[in-house]
Design goal:
The chain has 13 helices and 5 strands. It folds into 2 domains: 93 residues, STAS domain (Transcription Regulator spoIIAA); 228 residues, no CATH class. The radius of gyration is 31 Å and the shape is elongated. Helices cover 68% and strands 8% of the residues. Helix 6 runs parallel beside helix 10 and helix 8 packs across helix 11. Helix 1 links the parallel strand 2 and strand 3. It is an alpha/beta fold and 376 residues long. Keywords: Membrane, Transmembrane, Transmembrane helix. Pfam families: MlaE. InterPro entries: Permease_MalE. This is ABC transporter permease.
Length: 376
């Protein structure tokens, strides 16, 4: 243990400032004075500026930074100015790094009064604030995409490839099951009605067009919203509770570029491929049902060949791109704006799934109406 002592001397400086000169051994091995003593001296002087100075023989480590951080917080709460220009270069940089992210003050939520709960404008205000936050997030994503196109984004290729694998090959199992069953359901419903007119062969048209234009993209998107969108929200929400996102911001890295962009791009790239696979599996399921209702596999495939067009395929792929973007944005937005508790992570995950599914349905209806008006 060191025998040296950490010392400071307060004196009156020019222009209503207090000079504090640090000397001695400001290391973890030496006893340090309590900050409350310095706070009492500063209260008596009542100056507007606190200037930090050091002795030529000063020895320091993180103990000095911890004391300076208390000085910084003291000045911050009392609206004083802390002048650290005379500190050693290393100490000044460490102090700037430790104060780069504002400390979080978590206050207990006060119960709302009955009048506040019955206020008719409260839901509109909450909706307005949510809309502002969503637009700000979309703007940040747009700026990050622009930085990526210029080659200046902090986005790693390894992260993109990892999320691509998580959202693609690992999802094939559930996509196969749901698409096969959806194709069978479409075939059952269509064959039951077409059998009344002796037109069972047209069940191939129903299944193929239904999968290519609608059910393939929509069901895949719903599955990915519950699987990948929820995972995005849980991952980012957990990082938020552990203050990992704050650490990324402290390092000068944009969390949107580093965390959101790889997830967004991975889902945008993989969704069309998953939809093509889902279309194939759904048509295969419809063919299996049709073969048990008097339609041979040859008839089904021939009728399918006549109805498949590039337009029908492009409609589904276009929806896949839109749906993938919405799922990624909903999941990442809920995770980035998560609270600081485990309960908040659960709420963020739920919000991500619910928001994504609502947006999917609204977007699907809007796209269908637009295509109908354009005659596609």
């Amino acid at each position: 243990m060191s025998s040296a002592v950490a010392r400071y001397v307060c004196s009156q400086g020019p222009e209503q400032s207090t000079d504090i000169c640090f000397s001695g051994d400001w290391t973890l091995d030496a006893p340090a004075p309590a900050f409350t003593t310095l706070a009492s001296e500063l209260e008596q002087q009542q100056n507007r500026t606190l200037r930090c100075q050091v002795d030529d023989n000063l020895e320091w480590d993180s103990a000095l930074i911890a004391f300076l951080l208390q000085c910084h917080n003291y000045c911050l709460t009392r609206e004083l100015t802390l002048d650290s220009s005379a500190l050693p270069d290393g100490a000044r940089k460490l102090l700037a790094l430790s104060t780069a992210v504002a400390s979080l003050e978590i206050a207990a939520a006060e119960p709302k009064s009955l009048l506040e709960r019955l206020n008719p404008s409260a839901p509109l205000l909450r909706l307005w604030h949510s809309l502002e936050a969503a637009l700000e997030f979309i703007g940040s994503v747009s700026l990050a995409l622009g930085a990526l196109m210029r080659g200046r984004a902090n986005t790693r290729l390894t992260d993109f490839l990892n999320f691509l694998f998580e959202a693609g090959p690992k999802a094939l199992g559930i996509i196969t099951l749901t698409s096969f069953l959806v194709g069978m359901i479409l075939a059952y419903l269509g064959a039951a009605q077409l059998a009344q007119f002796g037109a069972q062969v047209y069940v191939a048209d129903l299944v193929t067009v239904g999968m290519l234009r609608e059910m393939g993209a929509l069901m895949t998107a719903v599955v990915m919203a519950g699987r990948t969108g929820a995972a995005y929200a849980a991952q980012l929400g957990t990082m938020q509770t552990r203050e990992e996102i704050d650490a990324i911001v402290t390092l000068g890295i944009s969390p949107v570029e580093f965390l959101v962009l790889p997830r967004l791009l991975a889902l945008i790239v993989i969704m069309p491929l998953l939809v093509i696979y889902a279309n194939f599996i759904g048509i295969l399921g419809g063919a299996l049902v049709a073969s048990g209702m008097g339609v041979s596999l040859t008839q089904f495939l021939e009728e399918t060949r006549t109805v498949i067009t590039l337009t029908q395929l492009n409609v589904g792929l276009g929806k896949a791109l839109v749906f993938g973007t919405l799922i990624a944005l909903a999941g990442c937005y809920s995770g980035i704006n998560c609270g600081r508790s485990s309960a908040a992570v659960g709420e963020a995950t739920t919000n991500a799934v619910v928001t994504a599914i609502v947006f999917l349905i609204v977007a699907d209806a809007a796209i269908n109406i637009a295509l109908q008006n354009m005659g596609i």
